[in-house]
């Protein structure tokens, strides 16, 4: 309703309120003195519009009806095993186990369907795991994050690993339809600030950081070393460099909840990797933060994937 000088305007019977969306406009009277049947409507004030002489309200009744219809269809569709669902409606990403996960207590997998809780101890190294064999599609068994509890971060974060393949194993990373970027499956360094909610909303978009550099997954030994005092070498959840938000980046470096490796490819740093067939073993030999200028710090690995990928 439009208000003028504190009083409602006198409107003709066929008037349609211009400030309401099309779905909630009233039909004009068919003849003088005829009033069409009215349904009860629930209105909410649009918070994006300023409060003044013209107030904007949105009829949410049709939206509520659509929401209930969608919920009914979801329940009727059942789960991915063919049975009918009796549990709560969950977002698609929760099809991955415990994602978002609790803080790690040791080296462990996160958001990695088909993987054990932790990698296996490796003689002469830290740990190892075998990549799962699966189709290159959403919901397939795959490795996403392998992390440990937070540790002091200073200097250069460094990881050295070895990959061994056999049987014609091919690394796959296009596990989501929207991962349309090219390149190979790769590994990146990663750390996460304490208190992260995993929703990426507001300042939480600056709680997870992925090395801008990545190394392709391939047979042999490789090292990736990235300085922690240069925000330009790290990207956030939405692909922003750390030097564009220096305060948030420094806060994450100072208080890490988890550090480790992520596995991805194409457009995304941590959306998972599996293999087509055969076998592939990933063994972590070294993972530490080395003081800048230390003689033991190896040279940084060259970029092996497009810069600026999103996690």
What does this 3D model show about the protein?
The chain is mainly beta. It has two helices and 18 strands. Strands 5, 8, 11, 12, 13, 15 and 16 form a seven-stranded antiparallel sheet that branches. It is globular, with a radius of gyration of 27 Å. Residues about 1-5, about 15-35, about 40-95 and about 295-310 have low confidence and may be disordered.
**What does the main sheet amount to?**
7 strands, antiparallel
Shape field: globular
Order of helices and strands: EEEEHEEEEEEEEEEEHEEE
Spans of 5+ residues with little confidence (pLDDT < 50)? 1-5, 15-36, 39-96, 295-308
| Class inferred from helices and paired strands | mainly beta
Q: Could you estimate the helical fraction of the residues in percent?
A: under 10%
- The whole-angstrom Rg is 27 Å
Q: Determine the N-to-C terminus distance.
A: 47 Å
Number of domains: 2
Number of strands: 18
Number of helices: 2
Mean pLDDT: 76
Task: Based on the model shown, name its key terms.
5-stranded antiparallel beta sheet; single chain; mainly beta; 7-stranded antiparallel beta sheet; 311 residues
Q: How does the SSE layout of this entry go?
A:
Elements (H helix, E strand, L loop, with lengths): L2 E2 L2 E2 L34 E3 L11 E3 L1 H17 L30 E3 L9 E2 L5 E4 L14 E5 L6 E11 L4 E2 L12 E9 L14 E4 L3 E2 L3 E8 L6 E2 L10 H9 L1 E10 L8 E2 L3 E12 L21
Antiparallel strand pairs: 1-2, 3-4, 5-8, 6-7, 7-18, 8-16, 9-14, 9-18, 10-17, 11-12, 11-13, 11-16, 12-15
